[in-house]
Every structure is written in C-alpha cells, then in structure tokens.
Amino acid sequence: MPKLSVWLVRASLVHMGIGFLSGAFILFHKGISLYPWAWKLLNPHIELMIFGWTMQFIMGIAFWILPRFSSEPRYGNLRLGWWSFMLLNAGILLTAAAAWFGDEGLALAGRLGTLGAVIVFTFIIWPRVKPLGGYAASQSSGGDS
C-alpha cells in the first residue's frame, strides 16, 4: 500500500475515533443533561464522520486499489496527492471549528479546502480510471458471447 494511502486511512481512523467519542458524548447528554454545550458538538461530529472518516477512507482505498500506470510514477503525481490530503484535513478541521465557534467565514474556508482537496484528488485519479480491457474489446467488435 502506498504511503499516501496509509496516511489517508490512518487519518480517517483518527477522525472516526474522535467522531465516535463526540457522538457518544452527545448521546450521553441526551440521557443525562449535564453539559448544555454538548449540542455544539453535533455539527463537528457530522463533519468528522462524513468527511473525516468516510470520504477520507474512500480516497485512501481508491488511491491504492485503482489501476496503476505501467511506468513510473505508477500512482501518478504524488505531490498533488499530498496536497489533497493536507487540504482535506485542513478543510475538515476548519469546518468543525467553525461549527463550534459559529464563524461563517471559517466555515466557508473549510468547505473551500474540502472542495479543493476533492478537485485535486480527481485530477490524480481520473487518468487511472479506464474500461476493463476485455470488456472494451468485446464491445468494439460487436459480438455478444
């Protein structure tokens, strides 16, 4: 597994752990209302679970498992991959902080960081997504076997 995939998957697991803990705290607060600020964790919890855990995990596995190029660099431009990783995590943290502090400007910066990460990641992955060799050959010959 390439180092970028390892970092994406590990970071997703960190986000998952923090997201589970914040979700558990919110659920605890529903039963026993001790801390009125607990509901401020809801939006950061959602951000961590959707973008931090799920999306980042999918990106890490996709980077690893999609077909590689036959010549070096086999995974494409790794520098762009690392930029995508950094933009995604910065965007997640900014958006989660914006939800906690109620800062719309910070939320916009976080969403733009996340969007930038997705765009950069798309540029890396797009050339690696190709039709399967046997499928394309049978479709071009027009034969139904």
Fold topology:
Layout: H1 3-31, H2 42-65, H3 78-101, H4 104-125, H5 133-141
Helix pairs in contact: 1-2, 1-3, 2-3, 3-4
Protein architecture, described:
The chain has 145 residues and is mainly α. The chain has one domain (3-130). The chain is 74% helix and 0% strand. The protein has five helices and no strands. It has helices at residues 3-31, 42-65, 78-101, 104-125, 133-141. The chain is elongated and about 60 Å long. 27% of the residues are buried. The model has no long low-confidence stretch (mean pLDDT 88).
The biggest beta sheet reads:
none
Count of domain modules: 1
Number of helices: 5
String of helices and strands:
HHHHH
Q: Compute the separation of the termini in Å.
A: 36 Å
Structural class, from secondary structure content?
Answer: mainly alpha
Oligomerization category of the chains in this entry: single chain
Q: Return residue spans where pLDDT drops below 50 for at least 5 consecutive residues.
A: none
> Globular, elongated, flat, extended or rod-shaped: what is the shape?
elongated
| DSSP strand tally | 0
Helix content: over 70%
CA-based gyration radius: 20 Å
Mean pLDDT: 88
Beta-strand share of residues:
under 5%
